[in-house]
């Protein structure tokens, strides 16, 4: 709820900083007939991400969870985008345990690696844009170096083993065994084949939202062109990264500010005024953020009525983990 209130504040600030009458004119001039196409591309993104989610759950051996229940849990996680750094998405791992008894040590890595591969996918989309917009190179190179180092560290089994051995001499001693299981699942998901499939699905799915942003810009009167599609792809990916790096709920404020500024930097069109950029940014965020939060709230309302099996694990691995 605090995230939603912050969203209201951000929208109010955008309206305040823009010419309110010009912003209203931009909304009135928008081609609302494009809305079904925009929503369709957003739903395509969700569908492909759900396929990745299902693929990961199958890899870690989650059983006793129907596809419908898995979809409801996945969509309910959209509400958790409104938590700092999206850490609330770990709720999905908890919901899987209460529904199927699958141990958290297997499902937490699914949530984390899902976020990591989405980040790498959007980084690749930024890389497409920097060919035309060279001022984006620092963000692309910095993100690429960070992702490479993180993947390298996570693949260093001996290094992680030494870290865990040291933790045995701390207050976390009782948690070391669970951390070992968590790392085993993480390393398994980061094997070359699963990693390539996840990044590939992520790149295609997030590009769908870039195309949706492109349609929003054309709906505001900007002439469609390959340059505009590249600009929309670059701006969308870069604003997503700025929002993520801010650790603010939903990237609120950081994503909007960076998107509006980058639009003005990348698109040389007399129709693209500050008010039009503000309108494009708000429409993009309504479609890619608030629409997801809305359907996530509906899914979470359904999931919250499920009977809990948290204390009765049905998966033998979960029972052994509880015993440990």
Round the Cα radius of gyration to an integer and report it. Answer: 21 Å
Order of helices and strands: HHHHHHHHHHHHHH
Number of strands: 0
List low-confidence stretches: 310-324
Gap from first CA to last CA:
37 Å
Number of helices: 14
Strand content: under 5%
Whole-number mean pLDDT: 84
Number of structural domains: 1
Helix fraction, binned, reads over 70%
Overall geometric form: globular
Coarse structural class: mainly alpha
The major β-sheet equals:
none
Would you give an account of this structure?
The chain has 324 residues and is mainly alpha-helical. It has one domain. It is 75% helix and 0% strand. The chain has 14 helices and no strands. Helix 6 packs across helix 11 and helix 10 packs across helix 11. The longest helix is centred in the last third of the chain and has 30 residues, at 274-303. The chain starts with a helix and ends with a helix.
Topology:
Blueprint: H1 2-17, H2 20-29, H3 35-59, H4 67-76, H5 91-100, H6 104-130, H7 137-155, H8 157-167, H9 176-189, H10 192-219, H11 226-246, H12 254-266, H13 274-303, H14 316-323
Helix pairs in contact: 2-13, 3-4, 3-6, 3-10, 4-5, 4-13, 5-6, 6-7, 6-9, 6-10, 6-11, 8-9, 10-11, 10-13, 11-12, 12-13
Q: Summarize this, please?
A:
The chain has 14 helices and no strands.
List keywords for this structure.
single chain, 324 residues, mainly alpha, globular, disordered C terminus
